[in-house]
Specification:
The protein is α+β, with helices and mostly antiparallel strands. It has nine helices and 41 strands. Strands 18, 19, 20, 21 and 22 form a five-stranded antiparallel sheet that branches. A hairpin with a 5-residue loop joins strand 14 and strand 15. One of its GO terms (molecular function) is translation initiation factor binding. It is found in: Cytoplasm.
Amino acid sequence: FLELADAEFFACGRIGNPKPSGMESVVSMSDIEAAAQRLGINLSSVDLDSIRLPPGDDLGVPSDDDEDLLARDDFEFETGFSNIIVVDNLPVVPPEKFEKLENVVRKIYSQIGVIKEDGFWMPVSPETNKTLGYCFIEYNTPQEAELAKEKTNGYKLDKSHIFAVNMFDDFDRFMRVPDQWTPAETKPYVPGENLRKWLTDEKGRDQFVICAGQETEVLWNDARQLKPELVYRRSQWTESFVQWSSLGTYLATIHRQGVAIWGGASTFNRIMRYAHSMVKLIDFSPGEKYLVTYSSHEPNGPRDTHRVVLNIFDARTGKVMRDFKGSADEFTTGGTGGVSGVSWPVFRWGGGKEDKYFARIGKNVISVYETETFSLIDKKSMKVENVVDISWSPADPILALFVPELGGGNQPARVSLIQIPGKEELRQKNLFSVSDCKMYWQNNGEYLAVKVDRYTKTKKSTYTGFELFRIKERDIPIEVLELENKNDKIVAFAWEPKGHRFAVIHGDSPKPDISFYSMRTANNTGRVSKLTTLKGKQANALYWSPAGRFIILAGLKGFNGQLEFYNVDELETMATAEHFMATDIEWDPTGRYSIFKFELRAEFVWFIFLWRPRPPSLLSAEKEEEISKNLKKYSKKYEAEDQDVSLLLSEQDREKRKMVQEEWNRWLKEWKQLNEEERAERQKLRDGEVSDAEEEYEAKEVEVEEVLDVAEEIVS
């Protein structure tokens, strides 16, 4: 079939192909068949490989390898047949059923995209005058062709005819497969670079990347030296943005042709490339095993649709593990950001750092895929009527989902916890009179907080409460938390990383209150308790240190950058500051430093600042606790190092002051020399007086009258 399709298609010319600029006309199949019939030629018996042009004569048809042709860049050539598909396993029918079969096939494929005029061809056997069981379909765009293959490969027309759909471009690849198998060449093992060597920095420093204009720099945060240390700099490294992988192993750069990732022991070498034309967004899985890329393609005409293409690559090998194509409307459910109306990220990764599962929301369905085969679990999606949001546990394959009220309140809203892969419902909570709902996982997956906005009885206003799920406890108990003033507006909520506490900003602007709660108490570990409430704070955002304990109470944007550093262990303020026009805050991965972003005029904006993420510690929780208890013993070494650095900085400061003093003395000496050289000239200007001292002269004011003009007055 492949040889026949390949030969016949090229013998007959490309279906509906317009005349390329600067090349000869490409004739249609009907013209070829008519000419063959007129000349009495049986096309099926023509051996194209045996045809040879006379030596030195190209019959006016330029060859593809003509050097003069290749040197010209003003021609617009077709780059391939990427908008054409081949549909195999069609019924073989006689002439009287041609039209019926064509109408059936056209009806199926015209629902996916626009088939070009004369873009459908079903070959016929000259001997039997019956169809050959396959057809060619040409769409307006490659995206439509790819979507048609995705949607209809394996389509069951009837019990005997299941479509096998391929891209026409694939045939070249199929034909290049050798007839005889030869074993792959075994290459000697070459150890790769240690891509995490940066974690062994003796000073324990963190890295960050800055992308400003055409320049991108990776630097060490060397707070001891009071300035960053350059690691790597490159101009025009990316065409759009840069992004660290989830664990900080790679730095990704974005290009029109796709994505590249970089890393290395001492510099940044290109590790892998991923082909995805006009890529706009990327997302790494939590364990860095996979990379998701996204592009969107605007409609070419009124009958065309906005298409979306997503690829999931194996980050290590660069192989496409699964692709998803469809209209933008299919990818708009869920998510918090994106482009062109598409929610991002489209896929939510679950199962912790093992990257076992990913899921997406569809219309009334949740599709959960496993990464062993990249297929749906149980080969089907979960049907969940009116589902609007999902959220994975950061640590376990547990999926939380939210379904709003249905039937005007007759069917309550609900939050459910689903165990994957068994799809077993672990816990469900029905919620009544719900206006809105948001889910917040604690980063160890121990707790889930569900913020529920409910209507009052009059339906004219709302109030907020929290449903707190204890995931690790038996039967997953749920506790309800309501604020003392139920009418307080919830401004912000945040869990303490690796901890059991959370903070809530509540009340009215410009000075709401901030309350701290704990999921544990000394007497009853199963009850939530309030630790304290800070009254009248000028804050609208919460930023916990990644190590817990410390939190920044921030008043961003309209609050003019008011900052308060708070110790939740001691329940006391450590410091306050103001960073005017601050819009965002980012802690470094260790919780030692934080940076504050702010908006400036466009020509001065630093486009990107990103801390390099760190992988989880290899120490056990017990070991970390032991280190924390004996921190003073361990810190002596580092305090001594800090003292040495401080002395070094003091010495450097003294050297700097010495250099400034020497520069001043040099400048003073030069001016004294110039003053001496001009002494005679100054004496001459003073009519021979020698001294330059002002006190030896007496200042006198002398009035001098001068006639400037004379006017005559005539009196009559």
